[in-house]
Amino acid sequence: MAEQHTIHVDIVSAEGEIFSGEAAMVFAPASEGEIGVAPRHAPLLSMLKPGEVRVQTPDGQQHFFFVGGGAIEVQPAKVTVLADTALRAKDIDEAAALAAKQRAEEALRDRTGHITQAEALAELARAAAQLKIIERLRKLRS
Q1: Same domain (yes/no): 19, 81
Q2: Nearest alpha carbon to residue 79 among 14, 2, 19
Protein backbone atom coordinates (compact mmCIF):
# COMPACT_ATOMS: atom_id res chain seq x y z
CA MET A 1 0.00 0.00 0.00
CA ALA A 2 1.40 3.40 -0.97
CA GLU A 3 1.97 5.85 1.86
CA GLN A 4 -0.29 8.88 1.79
CA HIS A 5 1.71 12.14 1.61
CA THR A 6 -1.13 14.67 1.50
CA ILE A 7 -4.37 15.38 3.25
CA HIS A 8 -7.37 17.12 1.66
CA VAL A 9 -8.35 20.39 3.37
CA ASP A 10 -11.65 22.28 3.14
CA ILE A 11 -12.06 25.61 4.95
CA VAL A 12 -15.63 26.89 4.84
CA SER A 13 -17.70 29.55 6.57
CA ALA A 14 -21.24 30.86 6.25
CA GLU A 15 -19.98 33.11 3.43
CA GLY A 16 -18.76 30.10 1.43
CA GLU A 17 -15.69 28.03 0.70
CA ILE A 18 -12.39 29.81 1.44
CA PHE A 19 -9.96 27.01 0.53
CA SER A 20 -10.08 23.51 -0.89
CA GLY A 21 -6.97 21.56 -1.78
CA GLU A 22 -4.20 19.20 -0.79
CA ALA A 23 -1.86 19.86 2.11
CA ALA A 24 1.25 18.34 3.63
CA MET A 25 0.38 19.84 7.05
CA VAL A 26 -2.39 21.93 8.63
CA PHE A 27 -2.13 24.01 11.81
CA ALA A 28 -5.21 25.31 13.62
CA PRO A 29 -6.11 27.16 16.87
CA ALA A 30 -8.00 24.42 18.71
CA SER A 31 -9.76 25.32 21.94
CA GLU A 32 -7.03 23.65 24.04
CA GLY A 33 -4.10 25.05 22.00
CA GLU A 34 -2.65 24.94 18.50
CA ILE A 35 -2.77 21.57 16.77
CA GLY A 36 -0.82 20.25 13.81
CA VAL A 37 -2.45 17.76 11.48
CA ALA A 38 -0.46 15.56 9.09
CA PRO A 39 -1.74 12.98 6.60
CA ARG A 40 -3.11 9.83 8.29
CA HIS A 41 -3.83 11.74 11.52
CA ALA A 42 -6.13 10.03 13.99
CA PRO A 43 -9.78 11.19 13.84
CA LEU A 44 -10.40 14.30 15.91
CA LEU A 45 -13.18 16.79 16.48
CA SER A 46 -12.42 20.07 18.29
CA MET A 47 -13.77 23.55 18.70
CA LEU A 48 -11.65 26.39 17.32
CA LYS A 49 -10.87 29.70 18.97
CA PRO A 50 -10.24 32.86 16.95
CA GLY A 51 -6.86 32.68 15.29
CA GLU A 52 -4.78 31.53 12.38
CA VAL A 53 -5.21 28.41 10.28
CA ARG A 54 -2.06 27.65 8.31
CA VAL A 55 -2.05 25.23 5.38
CA GLN A 56 1.31 24.00 4.10
CA THR A 57 0.93 22.62 0.58
CA PRO A 58 3.03 19.72 -0.77
CA ASP A 59 5.22 22.19 -2.73
CA GLY A 60 6.17 23.97 0.51
CA GLN A 61 3.98 27.06 0.08
CA GLN A 62 2.06 28.30 3.10
CA HIS A 63 -1.46 29.73 3.03
CA PHE A 64 -2.72 31.73 6.01
CA PHE A 65 -6.36 32.18 7.03
CA PHE A 66 -8.13 33.92 9.91
CA VAL A 67 -10.99 32.05 11.58
CA GLY A 68 -13.25 33.70 14.12
CA GLY A 69 -13.99 30.39 15.84
CA GLY A 70 -15.83 27.27 14.77
CA ALA A 71 -14.93 23.60 14.61
CA ILE A 72 -12.36 21.32 12.99
CA GLU A 73 -12.99 17.72 11.98
CA VAL A 74 -9.97 15.57 11.20
CA GLN A 75 -10.11 12.23 9.39
CA PRO A 76 -7.05 10.31 8.16
CA ALA A 77 -7.42 11.69 4.61
CA LYS A 78 -9.41 14.91 5.17
CA VAL A 79 -9.52 18.02 7.35
CA THR A 80 -12.66 20.17 7.43
CA VAL A 81 -12.63 23.58 9.10
CA LEU A 82 -16.14 24.92 9.71
CA ALA A 83 -15.51 28.52 10.69
CA ASP A 84 -17.91 31.07 12.15
CA THR A 85 -16.12 33.60 9.97
CA ALA A 86 -13.07 33.07 7.79
CA LEU A 87 -10.81 35.27 5.68
CA ARG A 88 -7.66 34.77 3.69
CA ALA A 89 -4.97 36.50 5.75
CA LYS A 90 -4.14 38.84 2.88
CA ASP A 91 -7.77 40.08 2.90
CA ILE A 92 -7.78 41.18 6.55
CA ASP A 93 -8.49 44.90 6.90
CA GLU A 94 -5.92 46.14 9.40
CA ALA A 95 -7.71 49.43 10.03
CA ALA A 96 -10.98 47.62 10.75
CA ALA A 97 -9.23 45.17 13.08
CA LEU A 98 -7.57 48.03 14.98
CA ALA A 99 -10.89 49.87 15.25
CA ALA A 100 -12.64 46.71 16.51
CA LYS A 101 -9.90 46.18 19.08
CA GLN A 102 -10.26 49.77 20.29
CA ARG A 103 -14.08 49.49 20.50
CA ALA A 104 -13.80 46.27 22.50
CA GLU A 105 -11.24 47.78 24.90
CA GLU A 106 -13.46 50.84 25.41
CA ALA A 107 -16.49 48.62 26.05
CA LEU A 108 -14.54 46.70 28.68
CA ARG A 109 -13.53 49.94 30.41
CA ASP A 110 -16.93 51.63 30.06
CA ARG A 111 -19.26 48.76 31.11
CA THR A 112 -22.30 51.02 30.62
CA GLY A 113 -22.69 50.39 26.90
CA HIS A 114 -24.97 47.94 25.15
CA ILE A 115 -22.26 45.33 24.69
CA THR A 116 -21.73 42.69 27.38
CA GLN A 117 -18.33 41.90 28.81
CA ALA A 118 -18.36 38.49 27.13
CA GLU A 119 -19.14 40.07 23.74
CA ALA A 120 -16.38 42.63 24.23
CA LEU A 121 -13.86 39.93 25.18
CA ALA A 122 -14.84 37.85 22.15
CA GLU A 123 -14.46 40.87 19.85
CA LEU A 124 -11.11 41.70 21.43
CA ALA A 125 -9.90 38.09 20.85
CA ARG A 126 -10.96 38.21 17.17
CA ALA A 127 -9.28 41.57 16.57
CA ALA A 128 -6.09 40.53 18.36
CA ALA A 129 -5.92 37.31 16.32
CA GLN A 130 -6.33 39.24 13.07
CA LEU A 131 -3.61 41.71 14.03
CA LYS A 132 -1.28 38.84 14.98
CA ILE A 133 -1.75 37.27 11.54
CA ILE A 134 -1.04 40.61 9.83
CA GLU A 135 2.17 40.94 11.86
CA ARG A 136 3.26 37.38 10.95
CA LEU A 137 2.70 38.08 7.24
CA ARG A 138 4.79 41.25 7.49
CA LYS A 139 7.67 39.28 9.03
CA LEU A 140 7.46 36.61 6.31
CA ARG A 141 7.58 39.23 3.55
CA SER A 142 10.64 41.02 4.93
Answers
A1: yes
A2: 19
The answer to whether 72 touches 43, Cβ cutoff 8 Å, is no
Digitized pLDDT (tens) for each residue of the chain, 142 residues in all: 345 689 999 999 988 899 999 999 999 999 999 999 999 999 999 999 999 999 999 999 999 999 989 999 999 999 999 998 888 877 777 787 778 788 788 877 776 666 677 787 888 888 888 888 878 777 777 7
How many structural domains are present in the chain?
Answer: 2
Closest CA to 21 of 57, 50, 51: 57
CATH number of the domain bearing residue 32: 2.60.15.10
Are the beta carbons of 135 and 51 closer than 8 angstroms? no
Rg (CA), the chain: 16
Three-state DSSP at 107 gives helix
Q: Does any domain span residue 26?
A: yes
With 0.85 as the threshold, say if the pTM is over it: no
27 and 84 part of one domain: yes
Reduced to 3 states (helix: H, G, I; strand: E, B; else coil), residue 48 is strand
